[in-house]
């Protein structure tokens, strides 16, 4: 009987891991849109008894992703009263020369009888990161899912692409892509083949890496083999590397580190151990090293969050992943002094360490400290990444890495840091 | 996400656990995801109150549980009205543990909820007791009976594989 008990416990643990991995985390924008729908419904319900009855009768329609439009069509931005609360900036990127672009979504109120209306998207641009102007509307593909996410990739001062993905699988390949070479004033559709056949020997200057996968709709999750492609300047098309990282389900940084190193994390094909790989020659060759992360081997790429930064002549990596209690927390800080040929773990969580679910990018400061900042945690690693100082600091947004520096915030403002220490807040136009 | 910060940390850290909590009560992963997203939307609209709560995580989990129970009741009522009898939730996600998954789904509601909440959502016994509204001793008893039932259902399969 004890053997049976142990076996049952093992099976339950495996099933728990499988279930958790089957649950993909929707993009936060989906929660915002759902919140907006709730608010809209509550306003309608407060209107009049008759209105309440109408709304109640139509609730199934409002909730349905495939409901047919009501007579008269959905409201448009021109006819629907708008509020800055309904607008948010979800993407902000910079070209190498400092030209900034951001996508601002407007989520108009939905009236009774309409399905979820299409939001509209506006492109913003700035030459200095401080003063932002509207460029124009970004074309949105016909919606095939309840929520769509528009991911912005900036390939040059005047060149950018927007990838549209389903929020249900935000790490999957884009379902549609548009490309602009005139700063977003005009857009062209980019063919998105199911299988990318173009091969490049190296990652070109100004290119970015974006998620991709082979989609099998009969499986959950449908993105069965997460990988990535290179978005090529000039055409906005996707290509694969001639010599890709030798890892299963590699998850790359979309941009190189400040000293020009490309990186990815993933699992070793034979052992399924988690590993990090670094290229110092634009993706032609990769240095791959297995890390002792104390993570279950059945952890998958969708619940591992890693970042790599350069500081002085070293690379530092942070890993956030699941621990036995199923919570995702910081599992280690690693350092390489030889372009990723070898790594050593400089910080390991103590057994009684509180969970540190910090999911943003590691920030390399000009003062020699590394920081992970995401409210309510501000983690500062000093002494070469070995000593952790943990303070509680509210109001810190998740950090991302851009070609201009570290950015945090978004929605109606963002913060920028070029030295990893000082942050400057800039407002974004929401009217 | 604006309230960014602590809310996003809660979202990133607890979403999957909440889904499994709702799954314990609904038996349907898709509905559980729907309920969990709705709960986070509620929490986002009341972020000031949630932030002041002793435990924002417990606050949102309570909303998840309440929404799941409400949805379960509504579904049961519709089933009775439509004379369909027991509901037939979506099939379980494909995986390597179909036998165990099927065995859990074959348990009655109370025993399934105890197993899923404690072993799959990884909640402590007192939290499970609070969610299902029974004393901790009853939860232990249900877990014990549920484990025995699972072992009985799984053992023929193992014999077949041997």
TrEMBL record, chain A:
Q: Where is this region: Disordered?
A: 64-85, 171-190
- Report the InterPro entries cross-referenced here: Sialidase_sf
UniProt-listed Gene3D superfamilies: 2.120.10.10
- List the CDD domains: Sialidase_non-viral
Composition-biased stretches, type Low complexity, lie in 64-83
Spell out the SUPFAM superfamilies in the cross-references.
Answer: Sialidases
Top-rank lineage group of the source organism = Bacteria
Q: Coiled coil: which residue ranges?
A: none
Full protein name? BNR/Asp-box repeat protein
This chain's source organism reads Actinophytocola xinjiangensis
From TrEMBL, chain B:
The record's GO molecular-function terms, alphabetically, read: DNA binding; sigma factor activity
Q: Could you tell me which InterPro entries the record lists for this protein? A: RNA_pol_sigma-70-like, RNA_pol_sigma-70_dom, RNA_pol_sigma70_r2, RNA_pol_sigma70_r4_t2, RNA_pol_sigma_r2, RNA_pol_sigma_r3/r4-like, WH-like_DNA-bd_sf
Give one GO biological process term.
DNA-templated transcription initiation
Question: What positions does the domain RNA polymerase sigma-70 region occupy?
Answer: 21-76
Start and end of every RNA polymerase sigma factor 70 region 4 type domain?
98-150
Keywords, A to Z, come to: DNA-binding, Sigma factor, Transcription, Transcription regulation
List the coiled-coil residues: none
Q: Which Gene3D superfamilies match?
A: 1.10.1740.10, Winged helix-like DNA-binding domain superfamily/Winged helix DNA-binding domain
Top-rank lineage group of the source organism: Bacteria
How far does the signal peptide extend, from start to end residue? none
Family according to the record: Belongs to the sigma-70 factor family. ECF subfamily.
Query: What protein is this chain from?
Result: RNA polymerase sigma-70 factor (ECF subfamily)
Q: What is the lineage of its organism?
A: Bacteria, Bacillati, Actinomycetota, Actinomycetes, Pseudonocardiales
């Amino acid at each position: 009987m004890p053997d049976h008990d142990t076996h049952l416990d093992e099976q339950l643990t495996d099933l728990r891991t499988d279930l958790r991995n089957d649950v993909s985390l929707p993009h936060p924008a989906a929660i915002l849109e759902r919140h907006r729908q709730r608010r809209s419904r509550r306003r309608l319900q407060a209107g009049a008894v008759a209105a309440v009855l109408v709304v109640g009768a139509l609730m199934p329609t409002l909730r349905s992703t495939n409901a047919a439009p009501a007579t008269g069509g959905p409201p448009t931005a021109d006819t629907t009263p708008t509020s800055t609360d309904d607008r948010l900036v979800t993407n902000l990127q910079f070209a190498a020369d400092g030209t900034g672009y951001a996508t601002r979504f407007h989520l108009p109120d939905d009236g009774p009888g309409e399905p979820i209306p299409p939001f509209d998207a506006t492109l913003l641009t700035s030459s200095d990161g401080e003063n932002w102007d509207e460029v124009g509307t970004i074309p949105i593909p016909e919606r095939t899912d309840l929520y769509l996410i528009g991911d912005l990739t900036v390939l040059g001062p005047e060149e950018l692409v927007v990838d549209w993905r389903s929020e249900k699988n935000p790490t999957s390949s884009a379902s549609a892509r548009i490309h602009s070479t005139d700063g977003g004033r005009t857009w062209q559709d980019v063919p998105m083949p199911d299988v990318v056949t173009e091969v490049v020997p190296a990652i070109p200057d100004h290119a970015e890496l974006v998620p991709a996968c082979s989609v099998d709709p009969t499986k959950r999750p449908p993105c069965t083999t997460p990988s990535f492609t290179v978005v090529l300047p000039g055409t906005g098309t996707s290509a694969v590397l001639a010599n890709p990282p030798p890892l299963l389900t590699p998850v790359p940084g979309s941009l190189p580190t400040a000293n020009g190193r490309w990186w990815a994390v993933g699992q070793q094909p034979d052992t399924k151990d988690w590993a990090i790989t670094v290229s110092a020659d634009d993706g032609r060759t990769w240095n791959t090293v297995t890390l002792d992360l104390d993570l279950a081997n059945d952890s998958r790429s969708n619940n591992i969050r890693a970042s790599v930064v350069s500081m002085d002549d070293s690379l530092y990596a942070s890993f956030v992943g699941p621990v036995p209690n199923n919570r995702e927390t910081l599992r280690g800080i690693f350092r390489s002094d030889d372009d990723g040929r070898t790594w050593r773990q400089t910080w390991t969580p103590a057994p009684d360490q509180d969970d540190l679910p910090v999911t943003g990018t590691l920030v390399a400061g000009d003062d020699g400290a590394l920081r992970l900042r995401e409210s309510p945690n501000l983690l500062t690693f000093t002494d070469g990444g070995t000593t952790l100082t943990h303070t509680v600091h509210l109001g810190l947004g998740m950090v991302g890495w851009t070609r201009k520096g570290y950015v945090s915030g978004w929605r109606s403002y963002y913060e920028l840091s070029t030295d990893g220490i000082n942050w400057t807040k800039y407002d974004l136009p929401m009217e | 996400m604006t309230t960014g910060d602590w809310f996003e940390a809660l979202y990133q850290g607890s979403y999957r656990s909440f889904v499994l909590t709702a799954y314990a009560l609904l038996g349907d992963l898709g509905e559980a995801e729907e309920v969990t997203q709705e709960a986070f939307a509620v929490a986002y609209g009341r972020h000031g109150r949630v932030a002041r709560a002793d435990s924002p995580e417990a606050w949102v989990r309570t909303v998840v549980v309440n929404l799941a129970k409400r949805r379960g009741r509504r579904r049961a009522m519709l089933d009775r009205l439509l004379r369909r009898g027991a509901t037939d939730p979506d099939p379980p996600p494909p995986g390597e543990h179909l036998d165990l998954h099927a065995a859990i789904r074959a348990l009655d509601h109370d025993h399934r909820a105890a197993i899923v909440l404690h072993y799959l959502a990884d909640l402590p016994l007192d939290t499970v007791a609070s969610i299902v509204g029974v004393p901790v001793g009853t939860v232990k008893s249900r877990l014990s009976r549920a484990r025995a039932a699972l072992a009985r259902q799984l053992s023929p399969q193992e014999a077949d594989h041997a």
